[in-house]
Amino acid sequence: MCWISYGIYDQQKVEYLNLRANDQYRVVEQKYSELMAIKHKILKNTSDSNKANIYQNSIVLYILDTAMDQHISLQRLSIKNGHVSIDGIGVSDEACRKFIAVLQQRLSGMECHGTVKADKGIYTFHMDGSKREHHSTNQQDTNDRSPVGDSN
Fold this sequence. Notes:
The chain has four helices and five strands; from the N terminus they run H-H-H-E-E-H-E-E-E. A hairpin with a 2-residue loop joins strand 3 (110-119) and strand 4. By secondary structure, the protein is of the alpha+beta class.
């Protein structure tokens, strides 16, 4: 049993050393190290007053990344005092709903609700989100929009 375990360890060690000798691996490792050094420098220089801005900027980057991934055109993005409001256009009803659903799932600590509207083949949506400790009241939407999410 011990020899088998040593043999597996020895084989994995050889594979690891071969990987470390790979030029592409070294380039990726170097770039990763540089990025981590920048990240640590930014975090080290961050005061408590700037942490809210970093959190807000992280949300903005995540929303932009998700929008690009889902082929969504953002028309308006507002983040203020823990509240997010987004208006956008998607290629289909399904694309808009998927974008809203992904944000609902990924923006942890936020309660998000959205609506999608179709008008002459153009699909628009509106989404609002706020920190979970803020309980919002259900409002009637008179713009012929259909709700998305768990706002039932």
